[in-house]
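Entry 14. Ran structure prediction on the chain below.
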Amino acid sequence: MSKDAQLEKNHWYRNDDIPGVAGPDREIVGYGEKPPRIRWHNDAKVAINIVINYEEGSEKTFAMGDGMNDGMYELPFEVDDQRDLAKESMYEYGSRAGIWRMFRTFDRYNVPVTIFGAAVALERNPEVARKINERGDDIVGHGYRWIDHYEYSREEERELIRMAMDSFQKTLGRQPEGWYCREMSVNTRELLVEDGRFLFDSDYYGDDLPFWTFVNDKAHLVIPYSLVVNDCRYIMGTGFAAPSDFVEVASRTLDQLLDDGDDCGRMMSIGIHPRITGNPARIHGLAEFIKYAQSKDDVVFMTRTDIAKSFIDQVPKPDRPEDRPNS
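Output, structure tokens:
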């Protein structure tokens, strides 16, 4: 094999991405040293967005014909060839008890939240859908079911997005302006832009500020999410052993964002699940952090869609990639 052929076979020598690879271009540089100076409602420096991931009843189960039991369970046990009724019942805790404890907590502290809603989960529990509308909560599409979108073809994923939006319209009487699926595919963002109904997506973890990207020459807004202040860390990998761990990570995150060494405002995402944070001790920890955050000046709780619209007011949609801040 010639030297050139060997180099072509081994990609370790590259210092850029291979042209034509499916999916969005990587955006490694971002805003750099000087992000735009953003302020949120009431001129706050930090906007906190609490996200309830409502998935219960839409996860993969033998009962729904998937031939598997989904993960994110309290214990590292797996049942491989039949229904796992213990795991199913943990999910049902979220839809039966946890979500209502969350609603009571957010009502008590007058906190607006965003629902990352799986359409089938809302179909199967219409009382939750009714309560979301009653509270006026923000809704972001979390897929038709809680399934990995990268497992499906482009056409299948397009149909899943259509089915989800039709379902939201039927269940809630409205459709989300944002999207965050479980494990996006290389086609997801293009499909959202082609669809034309979406103001933003949140399938991104690479910043503390929204930003504009371009998809096939069309400007598209990304509102980043986070897995750091996220209750999945109670049950997956290294993370929270106790609610006090969650409170400390959340509080330190907020403190840093309030004094991050510059005058730039930023957003803070908190991800929770009814079957996890809906348990008494964990929601108690979240309430402790809410009280801490509400004691601070320069902090506001906002929905994800309101964050998107506030950002657009301050950083309007660019006509060209080079018109973006710090492009």
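The chain is about 35% helix and 15% strand. Will compare against last week's run tomorrow.
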